[in-house]
Design brief:
Radius of gyration: 13 Å
Shape: globular
Number of helices: 0
Strand content: over 45%
Helix content: under 10%
C-alpha cells in the first residue's frame, strides 16, 4: 500500500509563492511516476504537473512557466514550487503516484493523497 501526505498549502496573495510537498511511503518511491493535480470548487480535478523517475517533467499549459515539479528520491518526496500565483490557482492540490516511473502520466494514477488547500487572494 502506498501512502501520500501533502503539506505546504495555505493562503497567499496574488503574485506570491508557495511550495507544496508530498511525502511518500510504502513503495519504492524512485520507481514510481508522480503527479500533481488540483480541484477547484464546482470543477473537475485537473492535471497540473508530472515527473518521472529520472526527473523529466510535463506541465499543463495553465501553469507552465510558473510552477515547477521536482523530486528527491532519497527523501521520498515530490515538490511543487508555485510562483506568480493567481486567484484562479485557488484549489485543493493533490499528489498522486503510479507504477511505470519511466514515463510521464497525465492520468490513470493509482494512489492519491488527501489534498492540501491553496487559496490565492486578489
Amino acid at each position: 500500500q502506498v501512502q501520500l501526505v501533502e503539506s505546504g498549502g495555505g493562503l497567499v496573495q496574488a503574485g506570491g509563492s508557495l511550495r507544496l510537498s508530498c511525502s511518500a511511503s510504502g513503495h519504492t518511491f524512485s520507481s514510481y511516476a508522480m503527479g500533481w493535480f488540483r480541484q477547484a470548487p464546482g470543477k473537475e480535478r485537473e492535471f497540473i504537473a508530472a515527473i518521472n523517475w529520472s526527473g523529466a517533467t510535463d506541465y499543463a499549459d495553465s501553469v507552465k512557466g510558473r510552477f515547477t515539479i521536482s523530486r528527491d528520491n532519497a527523501e521520498n518526496t515530490v515538490y511543487l514550487q508555485m510562483n506568480s500565483l493567481k486567484p484562479e490557482d485557488t484549489a485543493v492540490y493533490f499528489c498522486a503516484a503510479r507504477p511505470g516511473g519511466s514515463l510521464l502520466w497525465r492520468g490513470n494514477y493509482d494512489y492519491w493523497g488527501q489534498g492540501t488547500q491553496v487559496t490565492v487572494s486578489s
